[in-house]
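Q&A FORM
Asked by: J.P.
Topic: structure of Stage 0 sporulation protein A homolog

PROVIDED:
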Amino acid sequence: MHIYEIAERKKQAAKLEFLDSDIFQVFSRYVEVDGKPYVMEMLKKLDEDTLIDAVGYGKMVQKLSVYNDKLYRDALTGAYNRRYYEDEIKHVKGKAGVVILDVDDFKLYNDMRGHHAGDMALITVVEVIRQYIRKTDKLIRYGGDEFLLLLPEIDSENFARKLNKIKKKIAETSVPGYERIKLSVSIGGVSATEETVEEAVQRADKRMYLAKMYKNTAMVEGMDQKIAEEDHDEHTDILKPRILIVDDSKINRELLTEILQDKYQIIEAENGNECVEKLKKYGNDIALILLDIVMPKMDGFAVLEYMNQEQWIGDIPVIVISGEDSEEYIWRAYEAGAVDYIRRPFDMRIVY
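REPLIED BY: S.T.
REPLY: Here is the structure written out as tokens.
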């Protein structure tokens, strides 16, 4: 309320303010000192015997606790949020397992299947983790697709076993409404003793990135560090989403491979029949199909028809790349489920 409003009304204004579990009544009163207007504020701490009975006081504190809990919860997953980490956790010291868990290929789910698919993937991951943690453990959504897990007073053997159980169960769990999304997570964990959680998180984060190269296990302290140096080139492709290029022209396949191979695993098919075989072999491990239309034996439209029949089209995005630029071809491709249609010849930056 503005000072002149208080002066004009010539009456006292009051409000309640909260500090932790304490409740204060704040009175604002208009006064004049040497002819100048001022607002004087007075505080009064409320307890069970002041203006409110014990039952009413308890209800008020309960409402405040609920508000604080909502403030520290992620609206999507129900896990604690980054604010909770910053306010309550990062400077804590004590014996605990500190874990960073990253959802693999999350950006791809959002970009190719929509944000609802990404949301459902995160919700599913959190639901699985909750099955394997105690009431004393803390699950925090640390970033968009990263989670921080704190496991107080856990020994090293159970620590590694628990993380690998979580990893295995997530891989076995389907995302509701998107059953062909194949979930996987990369997990890095360390044991904290005298350091702060913030310091332990930095170490766990490095192990999480190491785990992305070795998909079959969570990377925790005590594991042989040498694997980080062995067969690096052999394992680098594990990090890359897989793209299937379907084109009867070897030159076109080689061109697309040259553009994309640094960031993607590339598999090829020279006609629709081979494309179907690759689909049967790799299934939902294919992140994207780049599809030509005019091909011998089985053309691109027949591939799209097959994918609709087998219900692949909703799970594996298809981008058509073709020299055919008639409205009929473009319309048919979109009607059959293609997410985009790129005319050849194309600017390589568009594909990339």
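FOLLOW-UP: The longest strand covers residues 22-33.
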